[in-house]
Write a structure and sequence with these properties.
The complex is a heterodimer of chains A (70) and B (415). Chain A is an all-alpha fold. Chain A has two helices and no strands. The longest helix of chain A is centred in the last third of the chain and has 37 residues. By secondary structure, chain B is α/β, with parallel strands linked by helices. Chain B folds into four domains: 95 residues, OB fold (Dihydrolipoamide Acetyltransferase, E2P), CATH 2.40.50; 142 residues, Succinyl-CoA synthetase domains (Rossmann fold), CATH 3.40.50; 40 residues; 42 residues, no CATH class. In chain B, a hairpin with a 6-residue loop joins strand 2 and strand 3. Chain A: Pfam families: Exonuc_VII_S.
């Protein structure tokens, strides 16, 4: 990651890929302690973005289906 | 012409045959009407043979003729009704009866068909029927051009069947004469008008069944050329399944009947709606499946220990710290122990060197009143005050007498 984008600009795929990266770094154990805390916080933010995206997508489909049926 | 004969006085065969030959050939040439059966042209031969059959009765004869005569007759097909000018001939060698034909021509209906055949061949040679030039029909035409007779069964058939398949179909109808002398021109005009219409994406020419004469205009060369020239695809729906006017060959699509044409020009709305519903269902299932899979992946990531319980990272660091502290403590302890040992040894050595032990054994340290240690009897004089340092204090004493120990040299006896 050269320049990390603002969290709000990330696509679902970007957020998920970054989350995978965070987990990998933390699990390697080679991260300094102060850095580890920061990483964990970023991981939580990324996971929240992904979940929001998935929930939004499901809601869109449900809406479209109800419009179709109604 | 009676010939006398009896079993005792028979006539020679040749006489009989020759007599018959005379009789037959006296008939002379005659025009006959019949159907052509078995016409096989032999290439490179002058003499050609065909069989002529009566139109109604089971009577057929062999006709011999020449290539020139056949060529002059125009295209002849088997089953065709012809009139032929024939001369009966009896061959004396074989006794067989043949007819020599000097002229043969299609009769009545045969002439019509022959003319049609000629037209067809000419147009084919011009390439009007070429399959690669046929235009595909649009899937869903904006408007359907229709050339037909007003209030005819064909018109009704086309419109009803199209609307049944695709209720929203829009027609652009040009009524035309569909038989008679002006039919070909009328239909050609209608086609041209519809072709110019910007929204007409397909043209259907529809006419119900009829006799050969009725359908003749649809084999007109001019009409064929007009249809060929049209940029819009043309569907020919003339007569019944078995009728094949030339229009069928030049059109982009040949429908066997007006009803069949309806099937070709519009899709079936019900079938299409079903297909769309299916596609929609499948795409919905696909996206839901994808979302479920992504959700599973996300859940898996989130349940990893490093994310779920970040204190684990801290615990690991704390553990490392604890280990290091332990090592530190042990390390310093070892060092201190070492130092303590060294110290103990040094103290022992110092102690060993100290005069305390000597004093403890009862020795005294003598020194002058000035504090200078006396190490020799020569350091003092009688009556001099000296100090004796014992373990537990000092004694001030005076020298009473000095007595050197037995020495080999006497220099110490100097007063």
């Amino acid at each position: 990651m050269s320049t990390p984008k603002q969290a709000t600009e990330l696509s679902y795929e970007e957020a998920r890929d970054q989350l995978v990266g965070v987990v990998r770094e933390l699990e390697s154990g080679s991260v300094p302690l102060s850095e580890a805390m920061r990483l964990w916080e970023r991981g939580e933010v990324l996971a929240a973005i992904c979940q929001r995206w998935l929930d939004g997508a499901r809601a869109t489909i449900e809406r479209a289906k109800s419009v179709q049926a109604g | 012409m009676p010939l006398e004969s009896s079993p005792e006085q028979p006539q020679p065969l040749r006489v009989v045959v020759n007599a018959l030959k005379d009789y037959v050939e006296r008939t002379g040439a005659i025009w006959v009407e019949g159907q052509v059966i078995q016409l096989t042209r032999r290439a490179g031969q002058v003499t050609q043979f065909l069989t002529l059959r009566d139109k109604l009765a089971e009577v057929s004869v062999k006709i011999s003729t020449t290539t020139a005569v056949l060529d002059a007759a125009g295209p002849l097909v088997e089953g065709q009704v012809v009139t032929a000018w024939v001369r009966p001939t009896l061959w004396s060698r074989s006794g067989s009866l043949t007819f020599e034909c000097r002229d043969i021509r299609p009769s009545g209906e045969g002439r019509l068909l022959a003319h049609l055949e000629q037209t067809k061949r000419a147009l084919q040679a011009e390439g009007l029927f070429a399959s690669e030039l046929k235009k595909p029909l649009p899937f869903l035409p904006r408007r359907i051009g229709l050339v037909t007779a007003e209030a005819s069964a064909a018109e009704r058939d086309v419109i009803e069947n199209v609307r049944r398949r695709w209720p929203a179909a829009v027609f652009e109808i040009r009524y035309a004469l569909m038989q008679g002398a002006n039919c070909a021109l009328d239909v050609a005009d209608a086609v041209a008008v519809l072709d110019k219409h910007p929204e007409v994406d397909v043209i259907v020419i529809a006419r119900g069944g009829g006799s050969l004469e009725d359908l003749l205009p649809f084999s007109d060369a001019g009409l064929a050329r007009a249809v060929f020239a049209a940029r819009t695809p043309v569907v020919s729906a003339i007569g019944h399944e078995t009728d094949t006017p030339i229009l069928d060959l030049v059109a982009d699509v040949r429908a066997s009947t007006p009803t069949d044409a309806a099937k070709r020009v519009v899709p079936d709305a019900a079938a299409e709606a079903e297909r769309v519903a299916q596609a929609r269902l499948r795409s919905e299932q696909a996206i839901l499946g994808r979302l479920a899979s992504e959700q599973r992946q996300l859940d898996a990531l989130r349940s990893r220990p490093v994310l779920r319980d970040p204190s684990a990272t801290i615990d690991i660091a704390a553990q490392r710290l604890h280990d290091l502290a332990g090592r530190l403590g042990r390390a310093i302890g070892v060092r201190l122990d070492g130092e303590a040992d060294t110290l103990t040894h040094t103290i022992a050595r110092v102690r060993a060197l100290s005069p305390q032990a000597t004093l403890q054994r009862g020795y005294a340290i003598l020194s002058t009143a000035d504090g200078v240690t006396i190490t020799s009897v020569t350091d003092v004089m009688p009556d001099e005050t000296i100090v004796a340092r014992l373990l537990d204090g000092e004694i001030a004493a005076a020298v009473i007498d000095v007595e050197p120990a037995d020495q080999p040299s006497d220099e110490n006896e100097e007063p």
